[in-house]
Amino acid sequence: MRRFILSIVLFLVGFSCLAQLSNDSALIKFVNEQGPCRVTFSMSGKGIDGQEHSSETGTMDLNVPSFRVTMGRHLIIGDAETLWYYDTEDQEVMVMNSFIFILLQDSKLDRSGDVPVVTYTQSNGNKMVFRILSIEPLPEDLPSDHFVFNAAALPEEAIVTDIR
């Protein structure tokens, strides 16, 4: 399960980094068109057998290159340099470089249905399907530290692993 959650993290970070790439893909154009926004999404993970193994809903506040994802018990905050992944139940934080996630530019965007759908297929055949349920401008009254991970506010028992 932890590996699958990490895959979700990698995809979402890649999604936010895509707008920085000079590529003509439909997904990159779509992200660039939005500007600073709050994206509400549903996500499902499917194995190579086609079975759905997990599903989740969440929001992503995006102001490229910064982003903040809230998805169930997971909080993911990042910028062009660093990503913080915080599991609020397990009290674990993983800190990593975010530049490596630009590899996700092969994700596919389908705008033919009622809602945009982004599909990312991992090299092992597993798929993550994100349905973009709504996109709205970011609220103007966000605190200045909205896109900053506050490590000082962590509980004393929190475990921080820095893999940068």
Mean pLDDT: 80
How large, in whole angstroms, is the Cα Rg? 15 Å
Largest sheet data: 10 strands, mixed
Strand order of the largest sheet: 7-8-9-1-2-3-4-5-6-10
What features would you describe in this structure?
The protein has a single domain (2-162), classed as Clam (outer membrane lipoprotein receptor (LolB), chain A), CATH 2.50.20.10. The protein has two helices and ten strands. Strands 7-8-9-1-2-3-4-5-6-10 form a ten-stranded mixed sheet, covered by helices on one side. The model is unreliable at 16-22 (pLDDT under 50). With 164 residues, it is α+β, with helices and mostly antiparallel strands.
What are the SSEs and their pairings?
Layout: H1 2-18, H2 26-34, E1 37-46, E2 52-63, E3 66-71, E4 74-78, E5 82-87, E6 92-97, E7 108-110, E8 117-121, E9 127-137, E10 159-162
Parallel strand pairs: 6-10
Antiparallel strand pairs: 1-2, 1-9, 2-3, 3-4, 4-5, 5-6, 7-8, 8-9
